[in-house]
Amino acid sequence: MKEDLVKTTQSLFKISKSQQEIDTFLKLNKRNEVIILQKLHSTDLSVGEKSKLENILALLKSLSKQIKRKQTSGQGIGPSTSASNSTNTTSNSPSVVWKMISSAFRSRIQTGAIINLNCIELDQFLEESRPLLKTKIIQNLKTLGPIKLNVKLCATYELPSTGEEDYKYFVSCNKEILKVDSIDEIIKQLFETILSKSEEFQHRGSGWKYVGTSFLLVCINKFSPLNGVTYIALPSWLESKGLINIKNNDKRCFVWSILAHLYHVDVDKENVLSYPQSVHDILNLRDIEMPVKISDISKFENQNPNISINVFGIDSSSKSIIGPLYHTKQVKPHHINLLYFKIR
Question: Could you tell me if 57 and 33 are in contact, meaning their C-beta atoms sit under 8 angstroms apart?
């Protein structure tokens, strides 16, 4: 059913020329959006089904935006296929536009589509999308702190032997974004991945030829970096930083690190047996689950009024310590800096 809806909508988009046809298309597309939204919020969907419905919803919204743009610019309806067609658009009108997309994923903070209005080549579309994507990332970083982000490109391809057209999707991996000054490099990596996958698709003998880009789906997810579980050997470049890395085999990495600060020892610093074992007599851990999450650190500080905590992370690519990922509101007599590290 979903595939039929997409094909029918795509066909109507191509043939809609007159004002009456455009109005009919927009009404039908709006009704289809409602149908997809209802399905999207069903409770029995698999991850794959949710993802497909998100794709369709973004596609429907992009077609509505594109048909309105072509109507306004006087180009007529249908994809531009040459540079000369794009010159008819108003010079000060945007080439891309942001549209919010509803999502059924609980960990999702925000889903949006950067919709292509008049870019012909893929690299041109990505370049035009860059400042808009950066703005959205900065807004979420300032409001929510560290995030995870991935993008998905939807582009139209044609099979010259049959004339068949279809939408193909190219997805990047998730990227953790912890600070504003890393955004440009991360966007560059995301776009390089998309371009590489698109080129690989065309060059591996598929027969499909690139026609144009519909949208870039932007998925911004929650990122809770602190979930310290057990001992992990640190990379060699951290060995000279004077860190104490407790060799525990339980889920109390956070607790042992706190005790290592409170009870200084001169030898065997990484051995859990070097520190008091009566943890609950020393620390108030009421209602704090192990392993400790970053969202529980403020609760820990409230329950242990002489202790304040900052948590830092690492950037493996630049071999540097970054953060803080968590910053205390008030420095107390026992102020502790922790380092969060996980195996990628």
Answer: yes
H or E stretch including 125?
helix 122-144
Domain match, 287 and 144 both: no
Nearest to 188 by CA among 123, 109, 266, 284: 123
- Domain of 107, in residue numbers: 2-222
CB atoms within 10 A of CB 222: 14
10 shares its domain with 105? yes
Backbone φ, ψ for residue 149 (5° rounding): -140, 140
Question: Considering 182, 200, 222, which residue would you say is the last residue of a domain?
Answer: 222
Domain shared by 45 and 87, yes or no: yes
Q: Return the sign of the alpha-carbon dihedral for residues 317, 318, 319, 325.
A: negative
Contacts of 49 (CB under 8 A, 6+ apart): none
Cis peptide before 324 (omega within 30 of 0): yes
Mean pLDDT over all residues of the chain? Answer: 85
- pLDDT one-digit tens code per residue, 226-269: 455 567 777 788 877 888 988 888 888 899 999 999 998 888 89
